[in-house]
Design brief:
This protein is an alpha/beta fold. Helices cover 46% and strands 24% of the residues. Helix 1 packs across helix 2, helix 1 crosses helix 4 and helix 6 packs across helix 11. The longest helix is centred in the N-terminal third of the chain and has 30 residues. The chain is rod-shaped and about 100 Å long.
Length: 294
């Protein structure tokens, strides 16, 4: 089947003239006439009546015109998809990420994506919430994992609600409680995480109209855990982060009221992402939907 003939036929019907069709498609009038005759011969149908007054569709032409239009439309969609696939074969996607996501989610997501699109390079920028947002806004990252809500200049998609847990040393007096009230922590020496989930932790205290007795401020999660383990204070950290660490010598308890941090992905515009970045965004969402179902 020669779709070029169908395109010529569709144009002839639209313009109502072989001459206008020839000019529009940069063909000779003879070539247009030959294409129509060849198509009619191929289908075994007379599609057009040509006379001095112009051209008109036969009954057969009327009936087949709709299907020809649908065929050409499907062909256009096919070509668009082929172009998109070609655009995905190579390229680079730059992703902003933070530690707990990098440990818990990224290996599986990237493995799945690289199996589908092995020629696409994924570059990772590891940072905190503010850095990731700025990288996206400045164009250094195509998209990134973020803490929601984000700046109004960004678009975001919610992915996951990560529970915040109280971290105590083993055999701490509060170990006997199933849930920890913030009031119970006010007098405890508190280790405040910084340059990471400090935004989440501070929001919890602010919402309760309470002030922690901050003893230490640390950026490294492992250092926080080590200090808690040695009885130097208590802390609050996300469950996802704790799941990636050795917590055998620690006591983890949920906070009363069930506090969460909301993790999402953000971009300046999801509709304007490169084809590769768009597919990577879809891969992230698909992987985490499957995780949620399980």
């Amino acid at each position: 089947m020669n779709l070029h003939k169908y395109q010529i036929f569709n144009t002839v019907v639209a313009l109502g003239s072989l001459t206008k069709t020839a000019l529009t498609l940069n063909l000779t009038q003879s070539a247009v006439s030959h294409a129509i005759s060849s198509l009619e011969s191929e289908l075994g149908l007379t599609l057009l009546i040509r006379n001095r007054s112009g051209i008109r569709l036969t009954d057969s032409g009327e009936r087949i015109l709709k299907k020809i239009k649908e065929l050409l439309q499907v062909n256009d969609q096919l070509l668009v998809e082929v172009d998109a696939i070609k655009g995905l074969e190579t390229g680079t996607v730059t992703l902003g990420t933070f530690s707990s996501v990098s440990i818990q989610w990224l290996p599986q997501i990237m493995q799945q994506f690289q199996e589908q699109y092995p020629a696409i390079d994924i570059q990772l920028l590891d940072g905190n919430y503010d850095e990731i947002e700025n990288w996206i806004i400045d164009g250094q990252a195509d998209l990134g994992f973020v803490h929601l809500p984000v700046a109004s200049t960004l678009q975001s998609i919610t992915l996951y609600q990560d529970q915040m847990l109280c971290v105590l040393s083993a055999h701490h007096p509060l170990e006997a409680y199933d849930h920890i009230e913030l009031e119970q922590l006010v007098q405890e020496p508190f280790i405040m995480p910084i340059a990471g989930c400090d935004t989440d932790v501070q929001a919890i205290w602010k919402q309760a109209h309470l002030q922690p007795s901050i003893k230490y401020r640390l950026e490294d999660d492992h250092a926080i855990m080590a200090m808690v383990k040695h009885g130097l204070g208590v802390s609050i950290l996300p469950k996802m982060m704790l799941d990636s660490m050795y917590t055998h010598d620690l006591c983890l308890r949920p906070l009363a009221g069930e506090h969460y941090r909301t993790i999402g992905i953000a971009a300046t515009s999801f509709t304007n992402l490169s084809p590769a970045a768009q597919k990577f965004s879809e891969c992230i969402q698909s992987a985490l939907q499957i995780k949620a179902i399980r």
